[in-house]
Structures are given as C-alpha cells and as structure tokens.
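Reopening: structure tokens for the NAP complex, inputs below.
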Amino acid sequence: MSTETKQFKAMRVEERQEGDKLAYSSSIVTRELDSLPEGEVLVKVQYSSLNYKDALSASGNKGVTRNYPHTPGIDAAGIVQSSSVDTYAAGDAVIITGYDLGMNTDGGFAEYVRVPAAWLVRLPDGLSAYESMVLGTAGLTAALCVDKLLKAGLTPDAGAVLVTGATGGVGSVAVALLAQLGFAVTAATGKAEAADFLRSLGATEIIDRQELLEENPRPLLKERWAGVVDVVGGPVLWNAVKALRYGGSVALCGLVGSPSLDASVFPFILRGVNLLGVDSVNVPQPLKSQMWQRLATDWKLTQLDALAQTVALEELESKLNGLLAGKGKGRMVLAL
Ligand SMILES: NC(=O)c1ccc[n+]([C@@H]2O[C@H](COP(=O)([O-])OP(=O)(O)OC[C@H]3O[C@@H](n4cnc5c(N)ncnc54)[C@H](OP(=O)(O)O)[C@@H]3O)[C@@H](O)[C@H]2O)c1
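Re-run output (same inputs, fresh job):
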C-alpha cells in the first residue's frame, strides 16, 4: 500500500478537563492506518450516516463512548480493502451497522474502518452504497419496528399507525415505509413547519408532539392507534400505549424524550396490547440480513432521495449538535 493510502482523514473527538467538568471538542485529523483497532477486515468507507447516538458519542455521553480521543460513526458503507478471513475479499461491497462500531471502536466518520468480519453485511443487489446510508441504522431500526408490528398481526385495515419523533431519522423512514406498505400514518412532531415534508413521505395526519405529552391520570384513553413506532419513551410512550386499539402494538426503540416509563398493567390486561422492544445493535445476523434484503427489494423506498441530505466531514460537528437539539429532519449521509 502506498504512503498516500496509509494516511486517512477522520473526525476525532477529544476530551479535556475544564475546571471540575469534562469538555469535548472535535476536529478533522489525519490518521495512520496502523492506528486503527485490530480487526479482520479493513474497509474503505464511501458513505456513513448521522444518527442520534453519534451525537451522544461526540458530546461525551459515557453510556455510548467511555474513552476519548474517539472517532464516532455507528454506520459505514464501503469496499473491503483487505481481509484475513475467507468470507470476504478485497473489492466486496459491504455495510456495517451496530455492534461496537462508533461506540468504543473507531467508527464510520473516517475514510477507513477496521472491524471483525462478523460485523459486516453484504450490500444487497438493488441498493447502492449511498442508498444504504440514507437508511443506515435509522432505516434498519425503522424496518425492524415495522417487522415486529407485522409479526404481531398489524394490518393496514386495523386502523392508523402513529410514528413519534416523525421528522427524525428513525421516524421519517418509518413514516415512509409504513405509508408505502399501505398504512394510514399519523406523524407526531415538534416541528409545525415540517408538515409538508411529512405529508410528502406519506403521512395522512400530523399531530403536535405536545398532545402526547399531556398527563392524564386515566388508566386507558380513547382507542386511537392500531400500531405505534415510538422513538421518544417516557410520557409520550405511555400515552401511546393507553390509546392503542384492542390488541394493538407499540414497537419501541428510542429514548429521545425519556428513558423512564411510569406505567400500569391496565392497557395490557384490559385491551391485550403489546409493547415490543426493538434493538438494531445486536440483532441476530439472519434477521439483519433479511431486513437489508427487504429494504433493497419489496420494501425499497421510493422516497429515498427526498429523505436525505449529504454532508461533508467538516460539517459534522454542527449537524451533530443539531441532532442533539432535536432539530434533525430526515436523514444525513456523510460522503467520504
Ligand atoms: N434501539 C435501537 O437499536 C435504536 C436504533 C436507532 C435509534 N435508536 C434511538 O431512537 C431514537 C431516535 O434516533 P434517531 O437517530 O432517529 O434520532 P433523530 O434523528 O435525532 O430524531 C429524533 C426525533 O425525535 C424528536 N424529538 C427530539 N427531542 C424530543 C423530545 N425531547 N421529546 C419528544 N420528541 C423529541 C424530534 O422529531 P420531531 O421534531 O418530529 O418530534 C427528533 O427529530 C434515539 O433515542 C436513538 O437512540 C435506537
């Protein structure tokens, strides 16, 4: 490998002591390939994407990243450069999401990553590397949520499906996917100005996020939704559960509002509703591959371009700060 390709650009988040507090700042640096962690496969990253978890990692959230300096980026799509295992060879197009990428292993906000082969999924036919990162972890998670709801028996004729945090990464893909599958989608958002965007993705009803935050001591609310995709948690989640139709289900994957849940058993024992947890990080490989296959074929979104904007390495810091402040809209793809 030439001297040129031994070096690569990466985002680096540094930690420093400021008085009695730790502070974090990031910059774009040049690194040596040798400085990457040990791993079976070296991948040249073509695209990454921005997720809420990256914003947490870049801002010093120790639940996501313990040690700094660190390169965030929980997603990457690219081409295998070298491999010490038989299952992958130089030139293979791959996607990496989840596991420890971008958490405590240097991640996709860099021109190269080195990872265990078990973290890779082959880029499916029908999806470009760019399109795979328009989806990224957010899209995979939205697909896993929809898959859980369908497996729990949800059908389009059962009634409307609510998506919370609808303009965010997971939310916007969930709105588009559910609408494409024939569901009537209610989008809950804190951004009144994003109504046109949500309608363009296929939402038929838009409600103010505030409506779902209202405290109501009643154990059950009027039956409203056949299914819910929730990224918010806390009171929003609980109000959604209490307003499920008989036998309905919530697929829960996020905590942007709160990690807590002040709940009762009533919706479960009086309406037979289901609360379904969704994890995209350690999801078993067969299901993960199946989801990517579906996203490349029968679940391929016609709205992929409308969902995404492309950002450069130099723009990462400001875009991640926007995500932390709840200002994200759709998906952001990092072009490397
Ligand atoms: N379980 C998993 O494997 C998995 C995978 C991916 C993501 N997640 C989690 O899912 C959540 C969403 O991730 P993301 O990447 O889609 O994030 P994102 O792009 O930042 O979107 C989050 C959206 O939630 C809404 N929101 C923000 N702050 C809120 C608040 N305080 N209360 C209510 N709504 C708020 C905003 O949308 P509106 O303005 O439209 O309301 C925001 O755009 C995060 O908690 C993330 O950690 C989990």
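DSSP finds ten helices and 15 strands in the chain. The pocket of NAP is lined by residues 51-53, 137-138, 141, 165-171, 189-191, 209, 231-232, 236, 253-257, 278-281, 323, 326, 328 (CB under 6 Å). Marking as resolved unless the reporter disagrees.
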